[in-house]
Amino acid sequence: MAKKTARKASRQPPPPVVRALAEPRTALPETRPPAPEARPPVARRNVDKKHTINDIARLANVSKKTVSRVINESPFVREETRTRIAEIIRSTGFTPDPQARGLAFRRSYLIGLVYDNPNAPYVINVQEGALGALRRVGYELVVHPCDRNSPEFLSDIRQLVSRQKLDGMLLLPPVSENNGLADLLREISCPYIRILSAALDDPENLVQSMDRQSAAEVAEHLAKLGHTRIAMIIGPPTYRSSQERLEGFSNALADRGLTLSPDYIAEGSYTFESGAACAEMLLSRTPRPTAIFAGNDETAAGVYRTAYLRGLRIPHDLTIIGFDDSPLASRLCPSLTTMRQPIRDMGRLAAEKLIAKISRTEGPSAAASTVFPHLVVRESSGRPAS
């Protein structure tokens, strides 16, 4: 009993819970956000509306086919109608839906550009010229570098045309020099234009640069300056342009009683590095040449470097002439005498001819298939010192 009593005594009741009473709150006046100021209604154009070709036809009171012809720059539309439709297209901000357009005309509106060329400025300039012409009529360019020496070259091109559903192809040299590729494209009914330095196809299928005649003009220029020890750095011998320029240059020298010695011919690859290496070999000859005709401007720039390292002055000790008239030519010091080849115009003309073939409309004539480079004389050419 004593133990139970002790346990009871040790258990104390829990302390009372004391709760503080909150002070009464003073009622605050009811507040509401101020009403927005009344604003006058603003007339808003529905800029999100996407106009269709049917809308343009309705606004111009013509058929959808006529609108399509204007978009594709067909010549079979009266100028008054063309101007009216063009103004409506501009004011509405209409742009053709490429998918709907492709379905309607069974085209992809894609053009392939195939190249295997180490001369990057050349490829870029052709590409820019082609894009300018293609985008005016709603086409885009699919640029495809390749290896023309690969065993799978032709099968890869066939797959490219099939996979991208290309409407046509632009072929740059030296790929354009492959007659097997042209045969393949004809076989699969893919229109093409070849940019070439020689007439290897029908005029309707090519844009030709007159490389042989251009090289002859360089020979005439050097002969008139009085040079007799003349060297040449050609491009890769598998390039048709290399053959055309070499033959045109050597034949023109021969016509003037001069000889292009085999010792003064070096094989480059249309690159800066090959130009420097070839110049090192040529300038080691005894007697050394007083003039070097380089295969292109990149090659000529390499010759500049070697001449500088050898302490030769341009043009007092060495005349240098390039080919292409790329932006590099006028930036070298002294500025480079070179053959100006209208590369962008060649790209534009090739694209215009291809679009005309695809749409079966009138395009550039066969006579317009030929472009004529001309010599731009700058500071790098002069009379020989001795």
From TrEMBL:
It comes from the Bacteria. The keyword DNA-binding applies. Residues 52-105 form the HTH lacI-type domain. InterPro entries: HTH_LacI, LacI/GalR-like_sensor, Lambda_DNA-bd_dom_sf, Peripla_BP_I. SMART domains: HTH_LACI (SM00354). The keyword Nucleotide-binding does not apply. GO terms for molecular function: DNA binding. Keywords: DNA-binding, Transcription, Transcription regulation. Residues 1-10 have a biased composition (Basic residues). Residues 1-50 are annotated as: Disordered. This is LacI family DNA-binding transcriptional regulator.
